[in-house]
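In this section we walk through a basic example: taking a raw amino acid sequence and producing a predicted 3D structure, encoded as discrete structure tokens. The instruction is simple. Fold the sequence below.
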Amino acid sequence: MQFHRFRSLFHFSPPRFASSRITLAALLTVSFAAAQEPPAPPPRPAGAKPSAPAKPSFLISRPVPAAEMAERGQKLYVAQCGFCHGTNATGGTQGPDLVRSVIALRDDNGELIGPVIRKGVPDKGVPPFASMTDVQIREIAAFLRSRQQAAINRGQYKIQNVVTGDAAQGQAFFARNCAGCHSPAGDLKGIAARLDPVALQARFLYPVTRTFGRGPAVPAGKPTMVTVTAGTRVLKGRLEYVDSFSVSLRDEHGDYHSFALDVPNPPKVDIQDPLAGHEALLPKYTDADMHNVLTYLVTLK
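The resulting token sequence is shown next.
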């Protein structure tokens, strides 16, 4: 009873004219929205092909330059600038990388690089090209923008041939560093038939399935095991989680156990990580080692 009395004190109806104001506001809103709608595109003539979708721009607010303009700029650039800055604008023996140049990155249509081209940088050995026209400078700017576009758009990267090593040397490296855990006649039998060279290289360098969480990475094959000794209690199982504060495992029966590590006399933790050997090799690999091992693994079909 008291509840209903309390409710009645605060429950009231709006004035009658409020509904009229709301209706008028709604009509105005609909009318305004209709006025803001863009006009419908004109109908496409019969038989006309639909226009190709615009090329995606990875240059944020800057448009992608036309290919023809970038090609003309490339010819000018190679003839006038390539001897110092490299034919691809990524730097040479005397000039810096222009793809990553702050001035080139901020330039839109030659307004920033133009003065540098025409006046040069005498104290750094850059000669002036005072006769360069505005059109030529804009074309060079378009070429540099196209190179920046290529660097930003990773989806267009082309992986070159990675099987360039010596298989015999790769086999010798494998025998010294890998044969303790892996066997060409065992777990690696036919691996080159299942994975292409690029995937195979990634697998032996980083043999892990990413979890995208805070738990341990899951290796391809064997799980990471852990032994936790807390006083007289010893537990072994698959590592589920570990950080500076706690460690968790799942034992052979599937039971979950967790131990605090930020306590006096914390338990002893011994992690048996099957990826430890791979991780230890990463800073030791030379480029030749990586290509040699890959070239050997490619033969395991």
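Looking at the output, two observations stand out. The chain has twelve helices and seven strands. The two ends are 84 Å apart (CA to CA). In the next section we compare this with other chains.
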